[in-house]
């Protein structure tokens, strides 16, 4: 966090012996962020997703390596009509408190989270469901508000199943302190924001997640990355993640730890006010200016020098692995001269000055600002808190900003492109053609139709250069040689797949 | 003395009320709290419903009066972030910060006062120079740097102390040293300067001439007078330590109230920030009040001022 590279050098000088806690079969992990609530519907953090996958199960399961959908708490599923999905539930599954998992739990969970009044934090993950109905003890129907093909993806991701009686009794705050699920691990100790201890669920059903190999997981929140490194050096931690690339590089050079790098679904991009919300006369309303911005930035160099690892330059308004994220769209190669020509064509031969906003990753934002300055777009750089920038964004007062989006690890283009181009309050393009295409793609059950219409929408977004998509993010995982773990591209740390060497 | 105490107490209450009002109003200028609560995926309607649910659409004075009334009954509402009662959250985190603050100030006093006294008795000696060097180093070295150096030496290389956490007394050793070392230089310099001034005063010369033992001269006659400004400074430093131990708490993963305040500001967790500001302000006020009373006891002339 502070004085990153300097302190990495200190850590290097300190050659401590690392020894994992294999003897007590406890994997000790650090979180950087104080997680608000363990109840997965009441936090929007990555750390929350990590605990969610450990403590709870979804009805379906998406294989992180192949993307293939498998049954999890449900064993069969079928669309009865455009808006009704019928699922057969797995029998014999028990919650951590010993109660049986049945259709009542699914109906209760779905009806609770789908009700906006209950205030689930990430509404997008649940608001596509209208309600659930019990057919018999082990058969349920989930009814969507509109045809929603991404339902399968959501049901294998953020929508996890809660025990109805327990949840009704304790509610979200109780669930946050004493979580109960069906997952491979059960929570034995929760100190909000500070410390979580999980223990292997010895009665875990034989599902696609597999049986966990490690008996205990001990997660401590350590905000400073340097301290996390000190703890792994001194043998008090076994695994850290989200390690900045320069530090990960140095730790890799030492040969004492395994450093694994994996891409994430987070995409960095520049959003521009093409619709003229901030000022109808603002330069970004001109196509040539937006194209100039796209040509001005050397994505390749930013990726190689700053992000490193498995990050790649991005040219579409979504993450490449997402279903429907068509890659065959107009690309703007790095060409500052072309950018200057385009600016001149647009009537700005000497460039112009604009406010430029960002809310995270200052170093990337500064690099981007310097590329813009180089072609004549002088930036008045403003770094804000996320909520402050969002506030301005919603009011339409941001001419150009560096933004990122992680799609909540939903492997479907709708989780990104549809989030920003359907005339919502964050849509600075307001393009009716794009809206029409996305409406078809978002609500069609036929995969081919979806790909075709996402393709048309993404092509139009690229042609019109509404955004300058830049790069994907990556995460570094550092763990001791005793630990065996293979990270996945969705940046979800899956404890149940970790093992000892 | 009683009149003095009552007067100071009245003043303290007034300050507390003013601080609470200012902090309450300032926070509302820091951006729309409804957006922060709603999170990334919320749309305008979600945000509006949150605004109504939390009562942000009411006039600010009404919100303040409401908040103050509840605060007087130790009800600071629910943390938007943790969804837990703020009072519980603060009580838990404050115990860590209080332990750290008290240990830190004691460490500072027990190293700085003797060093200051010795340095004053032997000006320009080796020990005086060492003391001066320590005080310059303490002031110049950023806490996060010093903290990491200690971690590297004592946690990684020697393996004597745990690097982070708060589960045993050993966990508090390094944070105490880092925090205390930050407060030490000012206390030491003030002690040294005060002692130098007092030692050249007439009454000390008189005491010595009367044949009083040197120890009695130094500690009864000199230190009692030289320590008066140190008491006020230590009180301010203590207040600072409670609110300002953010860096130390962050490095050593102590999860105290200072770090909670810092993080809560970033998360727009208004009830937590408001309560913490009030609590910190109250501590400052209480420490300053206690220092005033202590000073008045040490120096009767101050009671009439």
From TrEMBL, chain B:
Which Gene Ontology terms of cellular component type are present? Answer: plasma membrane
Give compartment(s).
Answer: Cell membrane
Q: Which molecular-function annotation in GO is an example for this chain?
A: dipeptide transmembrane transporter activity
Membrane topology qualifier: Multi-pass membrane protein
What is the protein's major site of localization?
Answer: membrane
A single Pfam family, by name? Answer: BPD_transp_1
Keywords recorded for this protein, A-Z: Cell membrane, Membrane, Transmembrane, Transmembrane helix, Transport
Where is the ABC transmembrane type-1 domain positioned along the sequence? 94-291
Q: Which Gene3D superfamilies match?
A: MetI-like
From the record, give the transmembrane residue ranges: 94-118, 130-156, 168-187, 226-255, 275-298
Give the record's family classification: Belongs to the binding-protein-dependent transport system permease family.
Q: Which PANTHER family has this protein been placed in?
A: DIPEPTIDE TRANSPORT SYSTEM PERMEASE PROTEIN DPPB-RELATED
- What protein does this entry describe? ABC transporter permease
Could you tell me which species this protein originates from? Answer: Paracoccus saliphilus
């Amino acid at each position: 966090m502070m004085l990153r590279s300097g302190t990495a050098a200190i850590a290097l000088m300190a050659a401590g012996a690392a020894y994992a806690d294999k003897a007590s079969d406890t994997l000790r992990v650090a979180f950087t962020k104080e997680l608000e609530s363990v109840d997965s519907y009441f936090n929007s953090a990555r750390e929350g997703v990590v605990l969610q996958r450990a403590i709870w199960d979804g009805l379906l399961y998406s294989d992180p390596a192949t993307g293939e959908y498998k049954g999890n708490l449900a064993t069969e599923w079928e669309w009865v009509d455009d808006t009704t999905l019928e699922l057969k539930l797995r029998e014999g599954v028990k919650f951590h408190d010993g109660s049986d998992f049945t259709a009542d739990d699914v109906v209760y969970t779905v009806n609770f989270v789908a009700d906006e009044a209950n205030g689930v934090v990430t509404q997008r993950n649940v608001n596509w469901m209208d309600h659930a109905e019990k057919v018999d003890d082990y058969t349920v129907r989930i009814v969507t508000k509109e045809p929603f093909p991404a339902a399968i993806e959501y049901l294998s991701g953020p929508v996890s199943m809660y025990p109805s009686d327990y949840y009704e009794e304790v509610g979200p705050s109780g669930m946050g302190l004493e979580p109960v699920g069906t997952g491979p691990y059960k929570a034995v100790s929760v100190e909000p924001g500070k410390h979580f201890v999980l223990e292997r669920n010895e009665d875990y059903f034989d599902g696609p997640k597999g049986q966990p190999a490690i008996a205990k997981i001990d997660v401590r929140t350590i905000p400073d990355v340097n301290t996390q490194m000190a703890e792994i050096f001194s043998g008090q931690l076994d695994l850290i993640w989200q390690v900045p690339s320069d530090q990960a590089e140095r730790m890799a050079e030492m040969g004492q730890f395994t450093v694994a790098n994996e891409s994430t679904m987070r995409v960095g991009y520049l959003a521009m006010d093409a619709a003229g919300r901030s000022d109808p006369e603002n330069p970004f309303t001109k196509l040539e200016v937006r194209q100039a911005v796209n040509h001005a930035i050397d994505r390749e160099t930013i990726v190689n020098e700053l992000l490193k690892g498995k990050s790649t330059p991005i040219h579409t308004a979504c993450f490449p692995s997402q279903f429907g994220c068509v890659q065959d769209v107009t690309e703007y190669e790095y060409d500052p001269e072309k950018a200057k020509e385009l600016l001149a064509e647009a009537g700005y031969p000497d460039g112009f000055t604009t406010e430029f906003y960002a809310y995270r990753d200052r170093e990337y934002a500064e690099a981007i600002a310097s590329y813009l300055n180089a072609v004549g777009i002088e930036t008045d750089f403003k770094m804000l808190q996320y909520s402050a920038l969002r506030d301005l964004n919603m009011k339409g007062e941001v001419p150009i900003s560096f933004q990122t989006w992680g799609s909540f690890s939903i492997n479907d283009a709708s989780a990104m492109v549809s989030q920003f181009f359907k005339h919502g309050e964050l849509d600075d393009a307001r393009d009716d053609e794009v809206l029409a295409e996305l409406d078809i793609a978002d609500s069609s059950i036929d995969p081919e139709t979806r790909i075709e219409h996402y393709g048309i929408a993404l092509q139009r977004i690229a042609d019109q250069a509404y955004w300058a998509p830049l790069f994907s993010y990556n995460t570094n995982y550092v763990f001791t040689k005793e630990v065996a773990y293979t990270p996945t591209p969705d940046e979800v740390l899956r404890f149940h797949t970790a093992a000892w060497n | 003395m009683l009149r003095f105490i009552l007067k100071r107490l009245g003043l303290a209450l007034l300050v507390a009320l003013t601080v609470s009002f200012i902090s309450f109003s300032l926070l509302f200028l820091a951006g729309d709290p409804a957006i922060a609560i709603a999170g990334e995926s919320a749309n305008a309607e979600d945000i509006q419903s949150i605004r109504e649910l939390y009562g942000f659409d009411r006039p600010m004075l009404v919100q303040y009066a409401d908040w103050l009334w509840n605060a007087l009954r130790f009800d600071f509402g629910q943390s938007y972030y943790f969804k837990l009662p703020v009072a519980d959250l603060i009580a838990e985190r404050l115990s860590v910060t209080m332990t750290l603050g008290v240990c830190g100030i004691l460490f500072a006093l027990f190293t700085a006062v003797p060093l200051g006294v010795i340095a004053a008795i032997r000006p320009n000696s080796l020990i005086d120079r060492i003391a001066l060097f320590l005080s310059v180093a303490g002031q110049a070295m950023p806490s996060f740097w010093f903290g990491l150096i200690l971690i590297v030496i004592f946690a990684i290389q020697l393996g004597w102390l745990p690097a982070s956490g708060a589960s045993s007394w050993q966990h508090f050793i390094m944070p105490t040293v880092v925090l205390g070392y930050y407060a030490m230089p000012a206390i030491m310099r003030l002690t040294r300067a005060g002692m130098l001034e007092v030692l050249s005063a007439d009454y000390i010369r008189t005491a010595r001439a009367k044949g009083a033992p040197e120890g009695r001269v130094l500690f009864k006659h000199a230190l009692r007078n030289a320590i008066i400004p140190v008491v006020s400074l230590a009180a301010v430093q203590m207040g600072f330590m409670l609110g300002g131990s953010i860096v130390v708490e962050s490095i050593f993963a102590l999860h105290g109230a200072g770090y909670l305040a810092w993080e809560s500001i970033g998360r727009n967790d208004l009830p937590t920030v408001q309560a913490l500001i009030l609590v910190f302000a109250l501590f400052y006020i209480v420490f300053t009040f206690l220092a005033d009373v202590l000073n008045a006891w040490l120096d009767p002339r101050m009671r009439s001022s």
